[in-house]
Write a structure and sequence with these properties.
With about 325 residues, this protein is α+β, with helices and mostly antiparallel strands. It has 2 domains: about 190 residues, outer membrane lipoprotein receptor (LolB), chain A (Clam), CATH 2.50.20; about 60 residues, no CATH class. It is about 25% helix and about 40% strand. Strands 6-5-4-3-2-1-13-12-11-10-9-8-7 form a 13-stranded antiparallel β-sheet, sandwiched between helices. Strand 12 and strand 13 form a beta hairpin.
């Protein structure tokens, strides 16, 4: 949470129009690009150091082994929302969002396993790029390990974002990419652009950090705004504590345990019969996003009513 990448915790569909600058914005961006020809870009190492300092510094970021932050999620135009919390401890993470009219949505990570559970799609294991993102989010060192958690970290230019002159920091591992916009004079993270895979294809996500709050020397984003096809979505946090969290908090819910057991059984069977195309296909299939896999696993573990299993986090 010290990196506080909420950007990939909830997927938002963003209109392509959000990326089209107005004429005045284009003129400003061009001016910054012209200036960049004169002023050399700082190194990625220097920019990351600025960003760490803006968050309170290495001492503040590594001071507490656990943290709990609470607030609310809302979609004003749809009059939907509710309380949410994020808990981190020793490389484990639990995110809970209770949305009025929808129910409880939970995401968790521990021991290299990521999972989700909500009333719409039921319990599911997370794989691929989303699992990698959850692993980074659960890392208690956060941006202190930025060069370890991303294979490529580089400064690619300057641009105006949220009316601030920003450096563009590009992070990439394989096909996974995140662009951070960092105010050049302060090192403050202003926003990000990411793309998240979904059954509908690649979904671009743009996040703007509107406010920061300091808790015991650690500065974290306290208000984040996302846009999706003309609709605004907000995440606001009002409290944070560093009290110890019991290990049981991060236990897998029964429905997730059943999915893990089923996956392990299929992988074990695939090792016994590597030439069996049906078994190999089963072992490599993703069970993290499709409704078909969710319903298949639900029938195996008796969790045909996903919402009845959403309290196991």
């Amino acid at each position: 949470m010290r990196r506080f990448q909420l950007f990939s915790l909830i997927a938002f569909v963003v209109s392509t129009a959000a990326f089209l600058p107005s004429a005045s914005a284009f003129a400003t961006a061009t001016a910054i690009q012209d200036d960049a020809k004169i002023a050399p870009l700082p190194s990625a190492k220097d920019v990351v150091a600025m960003m760490i300092k803006a968050q309170g510094g290495e001492a503040a970021m590594s001071k507490h082994p656990s943290s709990t932050i609470t607030g609310k999620f809302s979609m004003p135009a749809m009059e939907m929302g509710g309380p949410m919390s994020i808990q981190n401890a020793s490389g484990k993470m639990l995110v809970i969002v209770n949305i009025t009219g929808f129910g409880k949505s939970t995401q968790g990570f521990r021991d290299g396993i990521g999972w989700t559970m909500d009333p719409a799609s039921g319990p599911a294991l997370v794989e691929g790029a989303m699992l990698d993102a959850m692993k980074r989010q659960a890392n208690p060192r956060g941006d202190l390990d930025l060069f370890k958690t991303w294979k490529s970290v580089k400064v690619t230019g300057r641009e105006v974002f949220a009316e601030k002159n920003c450096l563009v920091l590009e992070l990439q591992t394989g096909q996974e990419k995140e662009v951070r916009l960092i105010e050049e004079t302060t090192g403050t993270l202003v926003g990000s652009r990411t793309t998240q895979s979904s059954p509908m294809g690649e979904i671009p996500i743009v996040t703007t950090i509107e406010a920061w709050t300091e808790f015991d020397g650690l500065k974290v984003p306290s208000k984040l705004s996302m846009s999706m096809i003309g609709q605004q979505q907000l995440v606001e946090f009002d409290s944070m504590n560093f009290d110890p969290i019991t290990p049981e908090t991060f236990d897998f819910p029964p429905a997730i345990k059943a999915l893990i057991a089923d996956k392990e059984a299929r992988e074990a069977e695939a090792k016994k019969n590597p030439s069996d195309p049906e078994t190999s296909s089963d072992s490599s299939s993703s069970k993290d996003t499709s409704e078909d896999s969710s319903s298949k696993d639900s029938s195996k573990d008796g969790s045909s009513n996903p919402s009845s299993n959403s309290d196991g986090g």
